[in-house]
Design brief:
- It is a single chain.
- This protein is an all-alpha fold and about 300 residues long.
- Helix content is about 80%, strand content about 0%.
- The protein contains 15 helices and no strands.
């Protein structure tokens, strides 16, 4: 295994750990705090954490290239999280996640014509397995009443997620994961400053939740995500991201007493299998994809 292959394997491993951690986010959303306030606090504390890290490393700077894409990514990110959190409040986590994860599929499909990332057959098989596994995990058909507004919000969030992945990939490749994550969070912080002020003044008792969502699940997580995204094709990233809804079932079982049924556990296994297939595709084919994307 050459250095490029090792980098891709490590990047996929980091994305897998990140996706598993992100599965716990719905635990913080089911409260009476407005979605826009939650997201405002999240991006603000995330930005503060990354600005401190970048300053400590001597890498805090205003980028000279890709600035408009960086701004676009920050705006899309803020809107994606607001609509996602709102969809969780309006409908079940299962339905919200099932609709949301159409976004990575759209990103994987569009990455071909946009970046020249022509993923091989194994990646598409892995994506199909992960998608099917996710449907078994969340089982949206079990819901007696599906709120159309919640489904609509989740669909909009899915489109915005695809936009974030596609708009941000060239920025992360050129500027690095730390600059990318810091920049987009600063943009989102400015955009949502009024909501953040309301969150801190009206819901200060949730400061610990804000810190966890912000510093860990947003700041540090954003850095890891974009640094990994530099080295892995969008289609492979999309496969690994399906670990998030799969892990959400485990988090809910541990902390909410929502014990999944047998079908859900089969789905979790299928998602893991899909991720392993994607990871095993790192090799000459993946190197060729990366070389095409860099041209």
């Amino acid at each position: 295994m050459n250095s490029g292959q090792r980098t891709q394997v490590l990047a996929i491993g980091a994305l897998a750990g990140l996706s598993i951690a992100w599965g716990a986010i719905p635990l913080f959303v089911r409260n009476d705090i407005p979605s826009i306030q939650l997201v405002g606090a999240r991006v603000t504390f995330g930005a503060v954490a990354l600005v401190a890290v970048a300053a400590a490393l001597g890498r805090l700077r205003v980028p000279q290239v890709r600035r408009w894409r960086l701004v676009l990514s920050g705006v899309l990110l803020a809107l994606h999280w607001v609509t996602f959190f709102e969809s969780i409040k309006l409908t079940t986590v299962a339905v919200a996640l099932a609709v949301l994860y159409l976004g990575p599929i759209a990103a994987a499909i569009l990455a071909g014509p946009l970046f020249g990332e022509h993923a091989g057959r194994r990646i598409w098989v892995a994506l199909a397995v992960a998608l099917f596994g996710t449907l078994l995990v969340v089982q949206p058909w079990q819901t007696d009443v599906v709120d159309p507004a919640g489904v609509g919000m989740a669909a909009l969030s899915a489109a915005l997620l695809a936009g974030v992945m596609l708009a941000g990939k060239p920025v992360a490749k050129d500027l690095g994961g730390l600059t990318m994550a810091t920049g987009e969070l600063i943009v989102a912080t400015v955009l949502l400053a009024p909501a953040t002020y309301e969150a801190l003044t009206q819901n200060g008792e949730f400061i610990v939740d804000f810190l966890i969502l912000g510093a860990l699940f947003t700041g540090l997580a954003g850095f890891v995500f974009w640094e990994s995204m530099r080295h892995v094709p969008v289609a492979a990233v999309s496969v690994v991201m399906y670990l998030e809804p799969a892990s959400a079932v485990v988090w809910a079982a541990l902390f909410l007493g929502e014990i999944p049924n047998t079908l859900s556990w089969i789905g979790v296994i299928l998602v893991i299998v899909g991720g392993l297939v994607a990871a095993s595709s790192t090799g000459k084919q993946q190197d060729a994809i990366g070389a095409q994307a860099a041209m």
